[in-house]
From TrEMBL:
Keyword Zinc-finger assigned: no
Gene Ontology CC annotations of this record: cytoplasm
Name of protein: Serine threonine- kinase
Entries under InterPro entries matching the protein: Kinase-like_dom_sf, Prot_kinase_dom, Ser/Thr_kinase_AS, Ser/Thr_Kinases-Pseudokinases
Pfam family, one: Pkinase
CDD domains with a match to the protein in the record: PKc (cd00180)
Length: 254
């Protein structure tokens, strides 16, 4: 479905404000009853491309021979099964048009890994951050017109809203965790997800610009703190595009 810029602005605004919490109860499902598809390591062919590296490990681009598709293998440095199951569980629970599909998990050899559908440009992972600031993507950036950026912003708030409806929080919304593929936005990195009813709280020594000030001060994360971080994404895009609607929506989210 294609919307006009005005319609996108309305949709983004409405979705930020919407407060209809639907408890579908799926999150009550016990972890031990959840089944993940097992990916055999020998079916993952190396393409010699690292698409990202973060706190939890490296993300490698692979060819998944069984399905004949490109995938991302996120290798968890600590090979902590609980972390792996949690992230895999959330990716399945948050199955949405703007969240990459979970293909499965690999627990035969260490480091254990999470295998997801690859959403990128060629063999590169194109996050909002890289698209805005990395010269490698200057051509792709020049092709992104205002409606395409609005579309990406809407995709992300739609995914966040879906997660909030399920009574969960993403807790790590930032321009590095938003992918752009075929001019559509996708949310990644479910390593910090927690329940609205059981929010995490900790005092931070580092001031992360995408985190809400009360969270850095030790208050629990909340839907509002996710919206704050989302607003920062709107601001960073709005500043680059010098677009007053995105800047003003970004300001309203704080
Ligand atoms: N499905 C995917 N398709 C394309 N690129 C991806 C995909 N999943 C992850 N990436 C790339 O890998 C990077 C790291 O992934 P992710 O954010 O899940 O790891 P992380 O270790 O939790 O990162 P951090 O702690 O730095 O936020 C992402 O920023 C993105 O560039
Ligand atoms: Mg990340």
């Amino acid at each position: 479905m294609r919307y006009s810029n005005k319609q996108y602005i309305m949709l983004i605004g409405q979705t930020i404000l919407q407060n209809s919490y639907v408890d579908i109860g799926a999150h009550e499902k016990s972890m031990s009853t959840y089944v993940f598809s097992q990916v055999l390591p020998e079916k993952l062919e190396d393409v010699n491309q690292i698409v990202g590296a973060g706190t939890f490990g490296e993300c490698h681009l692979k060819q998944y021979l069984r399905l004949g598709i490109r995938v991302v293998e996120k290798k968890l440095v600590e090979s902590d099964l609980k972390l792996l199951y949690d992230e895999a569980y959330y990716m399945q629970l948050f199955s949405h048009r703007c969240v990459p599909h979970l293909i499965g998990i690999q627990t035969q050899i260490k480091p254990y890994s999470l295998i997801t559908e690859f959403l990128g440009h060629g063999v590169e992972s194109m996050t909002v951050y890289r698209l805005l600031f990395d010269a490698v993507f200057s051509e792709q950036k020049s092709r992104m017109l205002l409606p395409n950026w609005f579309r990406v912003c809407y995709d992300i708030v739609d995914a966040v809203h879906y997660i909030h409806q399920k009574e969960y929080l993403h807790c790590d919304l930032k321009s590095n965790n938003v992918l752009v593929s075929n001019q559509k936005g996708y949310l990644v990195d479910f390593g910090k997800v927690c329940k609205v009813r059981n929010p995490r709280a900790k005092k931070y020594k580092t001031v992360y610009p995408h985190s809400a000030p009360e969270v850095l001060n030790g208050d629990p994360v909340s839907k509002a703190s996710d919206v704050f971080s989302y607003g920062k994404i709107l601001k960073i895009i709005g500043e680059q595009l010098r677009n007053k609607e995105l800047l003003s929506m970004g300001d309203k989210s704080f």
